[in-house]
Amino acid sequence: MMEQRKTKFIPTRASYKNCILVIMLTMSIYILENSPAASLIGGTLFTYVIKPLLWFGVAVFIWQMPHIKPTAKLRHKKFIYLWAFIFGVAYVLINLLAGLLGGIGKSPYSHSLLGIIKNLIYVVPLLTGGEFVRSYLVNSITKKENYFVFIMIALLMTFTSFSINKYLGLSNIEGTVQFAAEYFAPEFSHNLFATYLVYLGGPSVSIIYLGIIQGFHWLSPILPNLKWINTALIGILCPIFFLMTFNSVYSGIALKKKQKEDDDILSWIVTSIVSIAMIWFAVGVFPIYPSVIVTGSMEPEIKPGDVILVEKITGIEDINNLKVNDVIQFQRDGIFISHRIIDILNTEENGLQFKTKGDNNQSPDTEPVKSQDIRGTIKYKVSKIGWLTMLIKSDKEISIDL
After folding, report:
1. Model confidence, pTM
2. Is residue 300 a contact partner of residue 308, using CB atoms and an 8 Å limit?
3. How far apart are CA 39 and CA 19, in angstroms?
4. For residues 356 and 375, is the Cβ–Cβ distance under 8 A?
5. Among 99-113, 194-208, 307-321, whose mean pLDDT is lowest?
6. Sheet of 369-370: strands edge to edge?
7. CA 46 to chain centre
């Protein structure tokens, strides 16, 4: 029996032509959806009948094309499916945790039996057709971890996720930045991770991951009601962590390293969640956030290099509960200051204000603190661990003795 020789994967002219055809089909649906024709057909008819049929047709068309296998070996498929499921569930749980901390709202979608059926009719063909497109393009163009290809395909899928009117409505820099952070960048991050998943395991893997996320979004009666910056952080960081994690884990499996899969799954999930939680904590997503003290105005209780944990002021009730001797953090001229309340002033002209003083200062602060400038109250102190931050940010040399 002759030994089969492994040949290098080289995209053929026919595969390139098919890729161009698939891209043209995708863009044709996108253009039709954003054209006056969709309105003439009727919004409901187009959304729940024409568009699902078009995407279902695209999936069938690609299914009939010459089959191009994904990169991962067959014996690794169950492992990849399991991880895709875990990542999808982890993303939902992280969103729910953020919702518990930042607020939970009622879903805007109908959850009657008819409403659920309509949502499924809309989502399932769109998800299936889109992932068949993604998988065909990736696996027809490359059989290596080519991140340029991954990024280009992720950009295509992200661009077509939003209506043309959404782009045309971006009239100023502030609105553009918020749209990019809250919607475009998170969608791109999910698409980049989904592109890596189809590269390894084909469309079924990314359908598992995105299906769990979209199922939660469309079918859950409650959804997190977060500020746009928190939505951006979760939507961008989670898929990137998932991509880094899965890339490392799968590389170890592919190289046949001796490791227990169950231990890997648990350890990487814990690592990802802890890492994300640490970033959230550092940027102030949680009700308590850290801050480094750089001056000695509150000595001896709080010294330079100490890290204080500040509990956020979230409403007028928290302001009214402040009392003399509370140590607060407030903002003045772009600087965060942590001083003690020594008197509370309440006048008709200026409203509720607070007179403050640093414990180590000889005189009180020159101006009272307005309610809207207060960020929070100091609850805990951790000594010395902020010295590294001060060293990194300092423009001056710090002596080795210090």
Report:
1. 0.65
2. no
3. 30
4. no
5. 99-113
6. 288-292, 307-312, 374-382, 327-332, 335-347, 351-357, 369-370
7. 31
